[in-house]
Amino acid sequence: xxxxxxxxxxxxxxxxxxxxxxxxxxxxxxxxxxRGKTVIITGANSGLGRAAAAELLRxxxxxxxxxxxRARAERAAREIRAEVGERAEGEGELVVRELxxxxxxxxxxxxxxxxxxxxxxxxxxxxxxxxxxxxxKTEDGFEMQFGVNHLGHFLLTNLLLGLxxxxxxxxxxxxxxxxxxxxxxxFEDLNSxxxxxxxxxxxxxxLANILFARELxxxxxxxxxxxxSLHPGIxxxxxxxxVNIPLLAKPLFNLVSWAFFKTPLEGAQTSIYLASSxxxxxxxxxxxxxxxxxxxxxxxMDDLVARKLWDISEVMVGLLK
Length: 321
Description:
Elements: H1 4-23, E1 38-42, H2 47-58, E2 62-67, H3 70-84, E3 93-98, H4 104-117, E4 123-126, H5 144-166, E5 170-175, H6 198-219, E6 225-231, H7 250-260, H8 264-267, H9 269-276, E7 287-289, E8 292-293, H10 303-316
Helix pairs in contact: 1-7, 2-3, 4-5, 5-6, 6-10
Family: Belongs to the short-chain dehydrogenases/reductases (SDR) family.
Protein name: Retinol dehydrogenase 14-like
Keywords: Oxidoreductase
């Protein structure tokens, strides 16, 4: 077996090189200018969020990076400014704001500051996420994946709805995952106190993202605010930091991920497309992948489940008593 590993690695390397050559180096869509538009991106200091922030800044948007770790966010902002280059006033700006989606108090403080300082909000990209972490709870006692991926963004979006409506036409972009297919909304155990499976709970949070986006789109019909969800594909980011890969398998995994996984820039293309492209002006309540609309499983289109999840989420985050 050990003797076969070098040959296997060589074969995988050749296959990887061929695949990347055929695929080419895709660049995020540049769908025209975003001058004069303000965009909020959660989790913008790394991965998909960082890539989207850089491209939207390049398109001359005012980008607000909502990040938990302010020091890391400031460092990422400096790097992005160096990559993109500073422009004259009014030609694009990068702003860092502290936002911890595992804390409803932090979400409220972030929104309070945005409403005080910003005269408009054209795009909200709900991008931040936690992936298959060990069982832990948020500051408010919610299971971490459901709390961050769904509830934190649910409260954030609701508190910013007034500004989004006043800035219409405006857009909400919700980053989900194809793994929603393996999730179920169990109203008897939303907080995973009876049982916890980190993979299932991640999938459930991503299904909740889609149900939330569809229900929000329904509620916002006629307001000029559109809401769409997406899956970015399999992307090489630090989202999988809680996934344990055997030491001996890591070289092969790294090779496979280099060959077949998207770069953050490639993975962010659909987020950028939904945030900026005139092609989706007025399109709402849809699900996208690779900048194209895709079909959903019936469980992700269940309006009754979406409304019940909305009602329960309102109570959980304190919007309703």
